[in-house]
Amino acid sequence: MKVFIKYEILKNIYTFKFLLIFIILIILFLSSFYTMFKDYNERNKKYIEEKDKPETIAIPTYPLSIFVKGLEEEISSSFIIDQDLRIIWKTIPIEKLNLIFSIFPAPDLLFIVKIILSLIVLLFSFDSVSGEKENGTLQMILSNSFSRTNFLLGKFFALYITISIPFLYSFLMILTILAILIPLDTEMFIRIILFFLISELYLIFFLIVGMSVSILSKRSFTSLIILLFIWTTLVFVIPTFASLASDALSPLPSESYYRQAKQQHWVKLIFLSIHQYGNDSFENIQNVIEKSKKDEEELWKDYQLKLHKHLSVSEKISKISPAGIFQDLILSISSTGFDEYDRLKRWLILLKDLKEEGTQGSEFSRSSIETIINVDFVLNVFFIIALNSFLLLLSFILFSRADVRKL
Amino acid sequence: MIRDILKKELLENIFGFRFVFSFLIFTSIIFLVVFLRLEQYQKDLDDWKTRVNSQEEFLKKYAHYRRISAVAMPHLPPSKMEPIVSEIPVDLTKFRPVETLFDNPIKIMGKEADLIFVFFVIGSLVVIVLSYDSFSREKEMGTISLLFSNSIRRSTFTIGKIFGTFVTSSLPLLNSILIISILIAVRKDIGWRFLEWTSFFSIIVITFFYLLVFSVLSNAISILTKNSITSILTLLFIWIFFNLIIPNFSPFISEILFKTPTSSQINKLIEKIDEERDKELKKEFKKYVSEGYTDAQAWKMGDLEKINQKYLEKIYKIQRDFEIKVKVQLFLSKNLSCISPTASFIYATKELSGAGFSRINWVQNQFQSWKETALDYLEKKKEEMMRNNPNYTFDDFIDVSDGPRFFYKEQIFSDRIKNALPYILLILFYAVVFFYLSLILINRADVR
């Protein structure tokens, strides 16, 4: 078995394909790190400019946003609470200025692992078994005392090691650069290790899928074509459909609808109270603020309820695909996802209420690692592990039952 | 001879497993996308109608001069092309305070699937899958040497092959036209007019050109490579490069190459000018007060107004420069991404559907013109109220039922074509270059 794994690794490594992928990955990781680090620096610069200004709520940018940008542009913004007690953006997120950002996703590490690395894994595994069938070597190997289980396990480990070499090398390279540029604390380090481990689990899923299809197909071309369509469906179609489907299944009124409703409440109350009391004295305005606050709370509750339902439907649909689960887990680890943005909004509302009472609130801090690793998180990780184990078992069954004469 | 090669290619491909598989997948995805987007369009239309009606109802009861600008807002209807192409968002409140609470994070982060997405992700992959081995297969089977030893010209053979694979890969697209047309025509509430149908068919034509680029490129790579596996692997790397790397990196590269000041830096500059203005106005005021003038009299003299105007112009210049810099950065990002035919295709189709970058200026101009008319109307209304009622205050109700309303006019077709033309030409340029490359490669290939 050891000899077989060694042979397989060497066979994979001494190919032009491996060399090309190795070089591409290094270039991709470095260019992604360079661009995302520059982007992080720009956000950091904005934070430094804003943090000491009076009345400004500036949220520091998070170093892990270099790896996973997510909603970081929105989270690490500066806000002010104006005289009408509205929480407004002080710094405009870059997506609102350069609209190309709204068309193409950021080329961060999440994007590279989720889309490009998963395809690369398939390019390594599509002919793992079918290639041997085509060359006629499979029958030869199986006619010896070498068991089918050993053959498949050997193939699996060899492919896993082959893929992990360029991934680990590129990852360690940018991690070293990051550690030199930004001091990393223990928690950040744990998050990065978790990022790597979950990425490995995700890539193993594609590796097993690649092997399974390769077992089932007689020719490598057929295997590659089927895998390409599986990859497209899992990585592109399901996640992008999730948002569309949640729009249809659990509609959320537009941002403009809520803004309009809020403005109308405010203006209506002032108008009515002026005509009731005859002036816009301080007491009168205080009265309006109190009434308006209640209406706004109702509106906020309504929005929260609908938004959570909308997000939950979208998440459930996207989790049909492991790419959806992977994205969800990575966004949680890096504290740049939907949950963190929601936490920030709740914190801003709390701060606004405290401001009205004349007291000061605490600083906004990202979710701790203990909060992130909750039941949902563990279940998601467990689901990927279970899925991988199930698929591996299935491929063993398929391969063990295959008629050697037909292979 | 071309006809025979074309026929052979077509028949060979159509009855193959990969064609049937690609055809079914492509068709079902197109159906699902358009079906779901139609639902979304209906929802957005209802949302827009609710907002417009609610505003009308509100103005009927509570319109008053002092706060009317806070409630009388322009509402953009969803684009009629939304069932097939998602629009680039137009933010009418870009440089004004925006409340943060009520945004939809999925819309910020997630890219929704539309027809263009299906064409550039799945359509281009289908073309590659159907044509990666057009030449390499003949090489592997040894038939290419046999063919070239006959009187068939290499260029004739290449043209036949390219068009054969292109026609095959176009069949799923032709089928999708039928599906989309039926889905749209059945839903009469969508109300597509001549403009939308023309835009739709021009998008399909551009998609044919785009798929032709990938078809010609696949053939060129197939000529270059000795076996089919190398051909498809090379093509997949090119696909990743064109579809995922160039467009996604371009805005970040342009951000590094051409820096724009941050909005907080602009605010800081404006605050500084405001301070300078206040200082100078105070100084000038003091002079007038010492001469015995009242505040109102001092303003009437005109010098203070001139000072105010001078600083306002400075602020306006800063804001305008900032806008120009943002536009330059956008221009740079766009042009960098156009190295990839996919980015050109996305921009061309978005412009053709009236949902591209040019729409931003188009909408903002209409908004500006409505705003000017509305302000003018309000001033007249105020004067009329003051004339009729000496006790009138700015908090009293005013009837604005005869006031100007914001009606959005879609871009006309000739404008859409004009805006999309540079990108269309780029797509054609790529198709011609790759086609020419294929001809050169096949002519120079050593048949042995």
Keywords summarizing the entry:
heterodimer, A: 407 residues, mainly alpha, three-stranded antiparallel beta sheet, 75% helix, B: 448 residues, 16 helices
Report on this model:
The complex is a heterodimer of chains A (407) and B (448). Chain A is mainly alpha-helical and 407 residues long. Chain A has one domain (2-16, 105-406). Chain A is built from 16 helices and 3 strands. Chain A has a 3-stranded antiparallel sheet. The model of chain A has no long low-confidence stretch (mean pLDDT 86). Chain B is mainly α and 448 residues long. In chain B, helix 1 (2-14) crosses helix 8. Chain B is elongated. The mean pLDDT of chain B is 86. At the A-B interface, helix 2, strand 3, helix 4, helix 5 and helix 10 of A face helix 2, helix 4, helix 5, helix 10 and helix 11 of B.
Low-confidence stretches of chain A are none
- The share of residues in extended strands of chain A comes to under 5%
Strand element count of chain A:
3
Number of strands of chain B: 0
Helical residues, percent of chain B: over 70%
Helix content of chain A: over 70%
Mean pLDDT of chain B: 86
**What fraction of the residues of chain B are assigned to beta strands by DSSP?**
under 5%
Computed Rg of chain B: 30 Å
What does this entry show, briefly?
With 407 residues, chain A is mostly helical.
